[in-house]
Write a structure and sequence with these properties.
The structure is a homodimer. By secondary structure, chain A is mainly α. Chain A has five helices and two strands; from the N terminus they run E-H-H-H-H-H-E. The first copy, chain A, binds a DNA duplex through helix 3.
Chain lengths: 66, 66
DNA sequence: TCATTTTGTAAAATATATTTTACATTTGGT
DNA sequence: ACCAAATGTAAAATATATTTTACAAAATGA
């Protein structure tokens, strides 16, 4: 799972903490997802996409994990 | 999280077990997701959407959970 | 340079997804 | 009615996401 959250945050200039607030998770969760440390739940993926007004498919992509 | 997996399966006439196979999870996982017993991971959501050739956004939707 | 905000990271605890095994119910065809 | 395939479901085990607390490093502005 890759994603362009960092880019969207820049575009909307929003901090990790602000985004975390809006989607009801902790800052660390956003940080970890941005860094691809682990994948979000589908629900969280949708919430984040909604904040930026983009489709989940445009924000995330499946980088062939085995 | 709602989804139209059952419809897509019908359209492609594919069984839960077949779909499970294609996306590398168990039949029970597909069954539970169809029944909205729990939400899939984003990765799984993408894999399922890919099988049907649709966008994640078209297959799943966020039915305002609190 | 100093102070403040933002980001990176980590370990332990908790919540949730997924597997495994197993059985019951429904559905479709004959 | 019978048989087989498909679906529904459940409990315990395991994997993975997310929280909490806490600190270190980097970035930004004055």
């Amino acid at each position: 799972m890759k994603n362009t959250i960092k880019v969207e945050r820049a575009r909307h200039n929003m901090t990790q903490a602000e985004l975390a607030d809006k989607v009801n998770v902790t800052r660390q969760t956003i940080n970890a997802i941005e860094a691809s440390k682990y994948d979000p739940s589908a629900t969280l993926a949708f919430r984040i996409a909604r904040v930026f007004g983009v489709r989940v498919d445009d924000l995330f992509s499946l980088e062939e994990e085995e």
